[in-house]
DNA sequence: CAGTAAACGAGACGGTACGTCCCGTCTTATG
DNA sequence: CATAAGACGGGACGTACCGTCTCGTTTACTG
């Protein structure tokens, strides 16, 4: 063995970075179905051989390429559950309007529906995306602003549910009036 | 000329029926991505040539094959907005748990995100699926059970949003306790 | 079936012809090892898919591509064994000097040595190449110009052996003096 | 400097020996086409880097690996040209039947046909193989058993030609009857 | 009920992607 | 400084589908 335990060959780093970047690019443009190893290879200048050296399958590559997306925005701390929830929801709405992953998520959901390998990807991504709601929820429960049986998932469903619905199902603009109402409704319900 | 204006060749009818049936089958099993003309041809016994003769594109075939799914269940009429909404939501939850289209919708959402031809399909399907909420909402507004500015979409978002979220995003079981709570929460706020 | 028994699709004919031509081209230039399906496809403009539709393997393609080479030149009939043999040997020497297959034969011999599929090819080619010696030999035996136990192979070995040796093993020019002497030597002994 | 002028690093000697041995092994088994640097490296335990350090190309390695094969058998001295030739031919036939290089020669011939670097290898090998015929021929000419214009190459062609032909072209067994006849024929012709 | 035009199946075709294999070169770290 | 380990780009392999296309053959309507 010519390599000490944890240092990583710079060539490997360079190759992996280039591949992941282009994979993410293709993913953003065409969803999961739009990512082909051949095309990634062509655009990144990294040979297919090398790609398969680092990732055993297309799914594995996708998983890693997605691992950076939806990284948690800073959790707001306004002092009240209402303020925190409003800030978080505005942020989520903004991302749904503009973030690249917003166009990709449906294809991940679809893939999770039938490819077990990618179901894990979906779970990770979802957890990362929703973690701030957990923080805010726990904080509010500690302050007694929420009923004892309300958990992160109730809050997420009450807020993200309508937003997602609007973004992908009724496909109407996520205007701020709607977002504001969703927050108000959620506060009324969850109180 | 061998054909009068509107009568349709029985062969055409037979071919189209067989193709649509198999398309729907494949659609249910593998989502939009799982439908390939080759496979439809193989299973239906109708040649590819003939399929492309009747539908100009894969998208067109999908649109027609989807036109039958999500057909509106009978709209309940219990006399109160609460009763109607509960019945409707239970029905929706049941379909999300078991109906074939539930596994297909994410792929349609994804397709709508990038193929304009299929965006129309998504819109149709969504309209059909949500129509009962419109009926119930209008009825409730007429009875004064709802604020004047509440429309179908607010109701849909408040109820279907959390359900969809649970079905496809947090991917937890849609147990009846959750469904009941969603209805109650919605009523609290929309009243 | 849309095609009657023996007629052949013109497209098939065109494709096969183009592929065989380019295969032969590559074969001449680089021997058996110089033929790759990818390159044949590239040069002939016929897709790899189509090539594999018509030939199950690289070996099968090579076999067919070689089937036209070494086609028997007209068998001379000078009236005497000596005259026939001289003409035949001159012709063989000329081909060894210039014919494209002369540069290819060693690679076929080599392939025959280890790939059974190609051993058949070698046998066919060899039979075709040496057939004229058989004709001439039989004719001479009928006329009593040859001992009763002399067969085609003795004649071939006595004449082609030295020629081949010179062409591929000592690698000296096949000048006409050498050819003449080979014929004379053969006649001395075989008479 | 750690090393004096002409002594050779023991590591170098060990590496080269291991590489040459394995190269010869592969050569015997699969001909020239069967030798790959990767495989040599794998089997010999010597890294590819090291191999390419010692030999500039695959051809150079092959040349050196072949330099030991076909080493001249002891030249017989029976007292007569006939006896010598018979002994030499029997020996050659025996090698063609069993020696490892017999399966390799066609691939060398083929390589010589198109790679100049390997043409030299072929020439060396051929010279080594045929040298005994030269010795015997000169001896016979000195004794007056051969016409003055007969040289080694005439003898080689007359004897090795038919043998090679039989071994690689007609691909029939090199039985001793055939070998005996070849010798007799050669003696008749060359006398 | 015969003729004809349409519908039809078979399948050839050029593409593109797949995942694997092996090549020869090049880089890095070790001894 | 020779070496082992192995990353790298290149390219061929044979397979699977894709959607387009060109055929020759039914087959159902129509005059």
TrEMBL record, chains A, B, C, D:
The keyword DNA-binding applies. Residues 36-55 bind DNA. It holds the Pfam family TetR_N. The keyword GTP-binding does not apply. It comes from the Bacteria. InterPro entries: Homeodomain-like_sf (IPR009057), HTH-type_TetR-like_transc_reg (IPR050109), HTH_TetR (IPR001647), Tet_transcr_reg_TetR-rel_C_sf (IPR036271), TetR_C (IPR011075). Residues 13-73 form the HTH tetR-type domain. Keywords: DNA-binding, Transcription, Transcription regulation. GO terms for molecular function: DNA-binding transcription factor activity; transcription cis-regulatory region binding. This is TetR family transcriptional regulator. It comes from Virgisporangium aliadipatigenens. The lineage of its organism: Bacteria, Bacillati, Actinomycetota, Actinomycetes, Micromonosporales.
């Amino acid at each position: 063995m010519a390599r000490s335990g944890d240092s990583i060959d710079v060539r490997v780093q360079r190759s992996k970075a280039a591949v992941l970047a282009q994979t993410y690019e293709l993913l953003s443009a065409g969803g999961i179905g739009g990512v082909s190893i051949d095309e990634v290879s062509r655009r990144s200048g990294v040979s297919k051989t090398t790609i398969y050296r680092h990732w055993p399958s297309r799914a594995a590559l996708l998983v890693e390429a997605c691992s950076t997306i939806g990284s948690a925005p800073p959790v707001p701390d306004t002092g009240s559950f209402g303020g925190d929830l409003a800030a978080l929801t505005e942020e989520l709405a903004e991302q749904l309007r503009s973030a690249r992953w917003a166009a990709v998520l449906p294809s991940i959901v679809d893939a999770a529906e039938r490819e077990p390998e990618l179901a894990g990807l979906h779970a990770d991504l979802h957890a990362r995306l929703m973690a701030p709601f957990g923080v805010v929820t726990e904080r509010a429960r500690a302050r007694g602003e929420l009923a004892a049986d309300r958990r992160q998932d109730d809050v997420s469903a009450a807020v993200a549910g309508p937003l997602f619905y609007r973004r992908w199902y009724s496909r109407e603009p996520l205007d701020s009036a709607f977002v504001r109402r969703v927050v108000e409704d959620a506060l009324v319900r969850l109180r």
